[in-house]
């Protein structure tokens, strides 16, 4: 007889059943290994009671179905309009094949930054395509693999120009034809660096007075002019010529490189990436070859692997902020890799002929509209243009803008008497008719056949000549190309990525789905705010929840990366001190702080003073107190990461905050490790004045192969008046859009709402359990650094592999051997050289964690074989790792078996991941730098 047995299992409990990996029974098994009687006891042993919060996070959790229903309601509060505002943001068509196979595909959006090139060949090829596309279209030989947005890229270009200019001038010229938000961000960056900004018309620039100048081409109001004479004059004066430009326009217009430009910047947004109310979108930068070592951001290069086969890698990494710290070219950490990949595939999808056809259609539609307005008596100011022009309408401005809005069209308000119109890829006859109707013109427009581009500004050179841009564009071929590239990668959809400090956790499908809904994807960031009521409802609730989580009083959602958040937080502190009439410029940074901190402080004009760490990984309190006292009334801030980058909760954190405040400084707590704090500790209650939160870590925005990210900052009430300004309102902005990469804030909001307060707290607790489980299981085989005062680690642990160096085994050998086991390596040699920092996150299951432990123990056995002299390090599987399919089928003359080499413990057999290349030769790649798609002959030569 069947019994009715009620179950307590709730299949709709997202937090406990979908996001958190270990089941309750598995947690009990893990706690036994760890040696704790309960999860509560483990937390008591790990997190100092003196800093624990005394209030619970208590909002209810929503099921996936309930959250999506709420999201539909919120989306309905946004009004989707046809925005012809321009200003760097345009309607675009995302090819469905790219939307489905890239943007909505976890193989692409869950990948990590390609620091391990052997398991990132697919995304590296896509990014190399992006660099080639940018280099070709701008006419400059070297491009990076994306920056955060156009405005911040322009600010980076200014800083780069100061580094490379031969001129000793202290001023920088900013043309009035730049987009307003770009000017705002440049002015923000210039002020703490002591750079004087000179503004004026392009022809007003005096090259003898500046180290560089930036022009917009086409200008923000549509004007195009040949910049050759300007670039030549700047060059003769030893100054750097920068051009902010538009990739689609360059399909028709003379390229900046042909005009003598030194650096180009811009946004790849209109190459198939939705506006998303401001982002994320990949910015680009290209430059002359001799400037490449000064260029910020990541650069993909071509090298060879151990067998001499071509292989991609990140080149010139010695420029990066984690290595050079305050001497880095930039603090850029997150790029916009996923969006750069989308833009590159847009170029592959359409090819040069398709892009030219789109550009011609956009241009002729703009000319059609301008001609129709002129024919009806309107005063069109712009004669030569690509897609944008302005119309002088006098006192009729408000009426025309309102009439256009009634017809579903947003136009740009320019001054008090003009209207700006930017035509884009989505503009058709119906849109043109509605615009004309708003001007009171009912006659149909006559399609234009002649361009409004002067003959000497028409592009003459070819672009996108590499074979990848000339593929058969049948969708079947495109789909297979995308699949081939993704198959070369190891992303979170295949295996655990146990990276310390980077928190590669589950990015749930339900959180990602709304991003492609038109109500969120198609909004222009400068559209009237009333049209984005749904977005602002999300911003308000997200900010409120983050305040509750962190103990801060206010949030700015503008910073569009973690590094940008650091920069914004320090600028906020600097503005506060300045408002109080204090001249403070010293920033104390412990060696245990996050790697981008020193570079961010330097960008804010602060002098970095490094504080020692004690042997147990804590901040050396004596050294800290001494340096704080020496700084005295010059102490601006201290930057600490909590729990520390060493992976421990320091008992002394309140004392560090007290000492800082005693000397008048402000405490910046880096939010990189917030995954160990949510629900347990509020940084704003333990002495923090400001923190940035990596939403792409703790709050579930996917890493995307190197971005997108978001780094909003929370502050105590006294700092709130100094948060980043709206980029439309003058200096003070840190990003191009008022709410940064607004569309991906939806992911974190959905995560917070589905987890609920208790789910978020449980996630933190399980993250700490998973890390301590790994530390306990591996402690007998590997030394574990910095176990904390109670013998516990926080949410990550550091495995010390330096002890194996005497046997010839390096941290690289262990990292590459993990690839054979089907794992991405933990964070290598940071924060301690020669170590591995492991962070399992709460969303990894016990089975996957055990598989990783099995792999690490097997690697330890192989190290023992080397140490005991049974095999030489050079001949061992450790040194030959990773093993490819070609190794499997080739002649085998190694002293270990094929089985051991290719199918080590922990590796899947049926679903084994095979890296497409062997160990990549980094030195070769830097000696023979190739940063655009090489011709086929180069591959043949490498193979020989």
UniProtKB/TrEMBL annotation:
Pfam families: GcvP2_C, GDC-P. The modification N6-(pyridoxal phosphate)lysine is found at residue 697. Its EC number is 1.4.4.2. The keyword Transit peptide does not apply. It catalyses: N(6)-[(R)-lipoyl]-L-lysyl-[glycine-cleavage complex H protein] + glycine + H(+) = N(6)-[(R)-S(8)-aminomethyldihydrolipoyl]-L-lysyl-[glycine-cleavage complex H protein] + CO2. Signal peptide: none annotated. Residues 17-439, 448-724 form the Glycine cleavage system P-protein N-terminal domain. NCBIfam families: gcvP, PRK04366.1. The glycine cleavage system catalyzes the degradation of glycine. The P protein binds the alpha-amino group of glycine through its pyridoxal phosphate cofactor; CO(2) is released and the remaining methylamine moiety is then transferred to the lipoamide cofactor of the H protein. Belongs to the GcvP family. The glycine cleavage system is composed of four proteins: P, T, L and H. This is Glycine dehydrogenase (decarboxylating). The gene is gcvP.
